[in-house]
Design goal:
This protein is mostly helical and about 190 residues long. The chain is about 80% helix and about 0% strand. It contains four helices and no strands. Helix 1 packs antiparallel against helix 3, helix 1 crosses helix 4 and helix 3 crosses helix 4. It is rod-shaped, with a radius of gyration of 35 Å. The relative contact order is 0.14.
Length: about 190
């Protein structure tokens, strides 16, 4: 074999090794970036669900309170009109109390016609479903976030991932952990 042929083979081998090593570094670098972006994406999903919780739940609570207050007002009106009738001493007072009772009953009948089943119970059930659904969505997103953190942290701690993560500037991520105050049962008050 001639010296130029040997030199060409050695040069081809060196170029092949450099290309293979460069491909491995590029692949590892890209994987570190992908894992890091996955963690950021999952955190954005957690924040999305937190935002949903902070916007939806107070509005639902206020809606339920409003519906319950309307029904309460009608039922109290009937009860107060009945009470006024039995406390009336004169015919005029009894007539006024009876008219008040009829007005209260008509409001009750209108409510009953519009809503064959009174709405506050239904509203409370919907609120309960929304609370449960929101918390379930949030739990799923927190789990997915922590899974992404596990993947990036495992990559960063193992070899050769540690090397690639260092090149890409990717560091260990923090898990989503529940604070002590959040471990208490949430309260919804009306």
């Amino acid at each position: 074999m001639s010296a130029s042929r040997v030199l060409l083979i050695v040069l081809a081998a060196v170029v092949g090794i450099v290309l293979l090593a460069g491909g491995c570094v590029l692949n590892g670098y890209n994987r570190a970036i992908t894992l890091d972006e996955g963690v950021k994406n999952q955190w954005a999903q957690v924040e999305n669900q937190l935002q949903r919780r902070f916007e939806l739940i107070p509005n639902l609570v206020e809606t339920v309170k409003g519906v319950a207050k309307q029904e309460e007002k009608i039922f109290l009106g009937v009860a107060n009109a009945r009470k006024a009738y039995f406390q009336a001493n004169t015919v005029n007072q009894k007539a006024q109390a009876a008219a008040g009772f009829e007005r209260a009953l008509s409001r009750l009948l209108v409510l009953r016609e519009r809503y064959p089943q009174l709405r506050s119970n239904e509203s409370f059930l919907k609120l309960q479903d929304q609370l449960e659904g929101t918390e379930n969505r949030l739990a799923v997103e927190r789990k997915r976030f922590n899974d992404s953190v596990t993947a990036v942290n495992t990559f960063v701690r193992r070899l050769p991932g540690r090397f690639y993560a260092g090149l890409a500037g990717v560091e260990k991520a923090e898990y989503f952990q529940v604070e002590e105050a959040a471990r208490e049962t949430p309260r919804v008050s009306f």
